[in-house]
Hints:
The complex is a heterodimer of chains A (294) and B (443).
Chain A: H1 7-39, H2 57-64, H3 66-96, H4 104-112, H5 119-141, H6 154-183, H7 186-194, H8 199-210, H9 212-228, H10 231-237, H11 248-258, H12 262-288
Helix pairs in contact in A: 2-12, 3-6, 3-9, 4-6, 5-10, 6-9, 6-10, 7-8, 9-12, 11-12
Chain B: H1 2-24, H2 27-39, E1 45-51, H3 57-70, E2 74-80, H4 87-96, E3 103-107, E4 139-140, E5 143-144, E6 147-159, H5 160-167, H6 179-191, E7 195-198, H7 203-210, H8 213-216, H9 222-233, H10 243-258, H11 272-278, E8 282-288, H12 292-296, E9 305-308, E10 324-334, H13 341-356, H14 358-367, H15 384-394, E11 398-400, H16 409-421, H17 427-440
Parallel strand pairs in B: 1-2, 1-3, 7-8, 10-11
Antiparallel strand pairs in B: 3-10, 4-5, 6-8, 6-9, 6-10
Helix pairs in contact in B: 3-14, 5-6, 6-10, 7-16, 13-14, 16-17
Amino acid sequence: MVTDKGVWSRLRLRLLFTGPTLFAFVAVMIVPFLYGIYLTFTNWDGISTTQSLVGFQNYGAVFKDAEFWKSFGLTLKYVLFTVVFINMLAFLLAYLLTKGLKGQSFFRAGFFLPNLLGGIVLGFIWQFIFNNVLVFLGQKMGIGLFSTSWLSDPNRAFWTLVIVAVWQYAGYMMVIYVAGLTGVPGDILEAASIDGANGWLKMTRMTIPLMVPSFIVCIFLSLQRGFMVYDVNLALTKGGPFKSTELVSMHVYQKAFLSRDYGVGQAEALVLFLIVAVITLLQVYFSKKMEVEA
Amino acid sequence: MKHVKKMKWFILSLTLILILSACSSSGGDTQSANGGQNGSAGGGIKITLLNSKSEIQPQLEEAAKAFHEANPTISLEIQPVPNGGSPFERASTLYASGNPPTMIMLDTGDVAKFKDRILDLSGEKWNADAVEHALDLTTIDGKNYAFPLAIEGYGFIYNKAVVDKAVGGSFDPSTINTTASLENLFKQIEASGKKALVVSPMDWSLGAHYFSLAYAGQDKDMTKVNAFIDNLRAGKVDLASNKVFNGLMDTFDVMAKYNIDQASPLAGTYERGPELLGKGEVGIWFMGNWAWPQISSFDTANKEYGFLPVPISNNAGDYGNQEISSAVSKRIVIDKEKSTPEQQDAAKKFLDWIVYEQQGQDFLVNKANIIPAFKNITLPAADPLGKSIQDYISRGKSEQSMSDLPADHWANVGASMQKYLAKQSDRAALAKEIEQYWTNVKE
């Protein structure tokens, strides 16, 4: 139909359908991104009307910013623990809640609920729990572990971040795993049972390989959220005590808006973007290879 | 064919980008349209003020109403900076979106950053009535860019009921002028059955307020203090052997020793301070006069509170041992980019209204509990903490607060101080971290 018409009419047709979306995409994603890249080459402080190009100086500053790499290392540690724990817990919950328990939809809804709270609110709620509720209980019952606030110790404050992230996202990932689990064909599991496979064998040889697409999605989501976390970090620990739990997004933000070093902050954001993009692409690429057909 | 197809897409996207970039750079063209819209809605002039002193938001809204009644052609809208946000960050976002407020309330150190975008206010009448040094830090190349809104001060706030009981009689604040006499007071309070003090571990309090005393206490002469800062930047200061630094940290050690939260020094929150002090569970809290509304809601001392200096040595005569740190902390600037001349005039009128009209002065001093930075305003401060600071200033016992430190100073130095307070570092490490901060700081 379109092949015989001229270039212009084809372009018009395409513009009619893709134009609005393309425009929105370019306007809110591509242009700001390119402009952001431009800003990494300037010494802009975020407000002044003048800025001058400084070449690659900001990127040099990124590599010399020890705090950035420290918080990046901490973020890696955070991502490692959250990805593992979120997915283990989510899978376990999904497994238990597809067995036909009484009230299982109620439990599913309950575990999903933390996702509906905004990160800031959630952070403040948990801050109250860690600072007051647990300390009160710890002192009353003489539990040494809880008698002082977890948020005032660098190591424990890190674990509060992990605990809250797991609590927040496990329910969400659970929903994806539930969909994956119910999608595993019952007939092949039945056939395996007839062949004498026990529960463990069925799980490791049938269910998990068939659920690889769910794992890809869940691990991708938890990876990306782990790297980009900011709201809970801000509301729960504010990066404290003494900057020991400042994750990388927070550091980038502080660099740009608190230290008034917009160029370096933007360059750090770009470096972070590249690292996260590479890691998540690699994850998806390699786990795609593990997919099997039923 | 395929080649042509690719080319087409390339041209298409290029056109789109061009259109978009044209949109973003047309700020100058839309100025008049935008201004006209803002400026003449409903026949009156509409102006806005970005308020970064969230504790006076309701008072400011009331003042805006009163101002509107006195000037029916002008309506003023107060926009709050979200809680915990910095005014610089909010204002720069608003500028980036092309929608800045007519007036912005900034911290002193931020004003210089905005100088290309705000009005020169040197010609205003109130310049002549401002108190000494109030305009120094916002005057750039001989032009003053900002209106000084409030003087704020800080030090040890004492609850008179508690300390009276501790010393057995009426407490005289002038007896506390050395680290030893302060420690003695702490001991007396503990002996009377109360806890001596609470140290609130927020990074801004420890970094921007407490530690800044180490700079300001170097000398009475601000030029020498500035020279000290320059030496810090150049890495030429050995803090560990600095007398003022060591004296201040000796006092800090004493504070840590008598701190009610000693077991878990970093767990405290700001909200805990006014409650403990107001209820009389502790005698002393290191904080400033802005905390009055919170203290008064727990008040058990019949509104009798006052300030003690933070001693930095055991020699009563040393500079800093009898002085309270105070300075103009909040400034109002007027936008010149997107505001129409009418709006700018209306904004100037509002500033004049605060300084010269009885209603405006009443708002400033009695409603908002602000210590004014103008000589012509003779109303006495409405709250005991403001009164105490006014008293120190009038006796010449005030030390300039460091209000133009680098923007990330409080966060970084505050973190180092928290580490020290939690005994995760020692004084040598603290000195080193702070020296390092200064040698790496931007500008």
